[in-house]
Design brief:
Distance between the termini: 49 Å
Number of strands: 7
CATH architecture: 3-Layer(aba) Sandwich
Strand order of the largest sheet: 3-2-1-4-5-6-7
Largest sheet: 7 strands, parallel
Strand content: 5-15%
Low-confidence stretches: none
Bound molecules: nicotinamide-adenine-dinucleotide
Length: 250
């Protein structure tokens, strides 16, 4: 057991829920944050070591209130996993400003707001940020003008955090998941996209929520105490193969 506390956003399901579960298995306590209150409460109920905090991370006032409730409840925060995200796949020319804002509000502003509100707590514990971007933030692709741009910005925001917060002993790293069969991915991955991913990924399969959670919890742990400002793709090798022309793979 440790007395460490992790705050995980988007923890009601998917990668965030798997991360909360793995933290608990590793002896941490977890503040589970999500805007889907019903799913969040149902998810948190299964753990004695977790508490649910309903909050939309894109709303500044709500985030400030949520962080003060987490601190009132647990007394400290050692790691913040900025995982809450939304996806929107559509052609650039069909992307309205409202579509763009909806993605940026959560994927970029949410990371900024939760980070800003938790810096004082992380200074006290010399804690860690892990921000969840995507392979879509590492290279451009069709259908992802807002999503990919938001995730590329999260990669850079992580480096800014590492540069400015290192002097307080705060580490900041970024994880870029490849495809994982969550509700977010399945809403935008057609059968053709799924088949193409299988074909292009050296490990020939989607990742699992738990495989992502392993990387995230490692980066939050003391085992990664000299790792900061890094971007780790947990993607079955997708990013390392670059363009990866299918014709050259046989
Ligand atoms: N699944 C994939 O293939 C994949 C690939 C690359 C990156 N990612 C990233 O991983 C992260 C987790 O995604 P997932 O696949 O587990 O998705 P998911 O849809 O299963 O879970 C996302 C959670 O975030 C919550 N959420 C969304 N907007 C929020 C907001 N404004 N405030 C609070 N909570 C909010 C949702 O309610 C949901 O519970 C996201 O940042 C996503 O972009 C996922």
């Amino acid at each position: 057991m440790t007395d460490k506390v992790a705050l995980v956003t988007g923890a009601a399901r998917g990668i965030g829920l798997a991360t909360a579960k793995l933290f608990i298995e590793q002896g941490w306590q977890v503040a589970m944050v999500d805007r889907d209150t019903d799913e969040l409460n149902a998810a948190a109920k299964q753990f004695n070591e977790a508490r649910a905090f309903s909050c939309d991370v894109s709303r500044s006032d709500d985030v400030i209130e949520m962080v003060s409730e987490v601190l009132a409840s647990f007394g400290r925060i050692d790691a913040v996993v900025n995982n809450a995200g939304v996806a929107d796949f559509r052609p650039l020319e069909e992307t309205t400003f409202a579509d763009w804002r909806r993605v940026m509000d959560t994927n970029l502003d949410g990371v900024f707001l939760v980070s800003l509100a938790t810096i004082p707590a992380l200074k006290k514990t010399k804690g860690a940020f892990v921000n969840i971007a995507s392979i879509s933030g590492l290279r451009a692709s069709t259908l992802r003008v807002a999503y990919g741009t938001s995730k590329a910005a999260v990669i850079h925001l992580t480096k800014q955090q590492a540069a400015e917060l290192g002097e307080y002993g705060i580490r900041a790293n970024c994880v870029c998941p490849g495809p994982v069969r969550t509700k977010l991915a399945m809403a935008v991955h057609s059968p053709e996209i799924i088949a193409a991913y299988h074909d292009s990924i050296p490990l020939n399969r989607y990742g699992t929520e738990n495989e992502l959670a392993e990387v995230i919890t490692f980066l939050c742990s003391d085992k990664a105490s000299y790792v900061t400002g890094q971007v780790i793709a947990a993607d079955g090798g997708f990013e390392s193969t670059g363009v990866g022309l299918p014709a050259l793979r046989d």
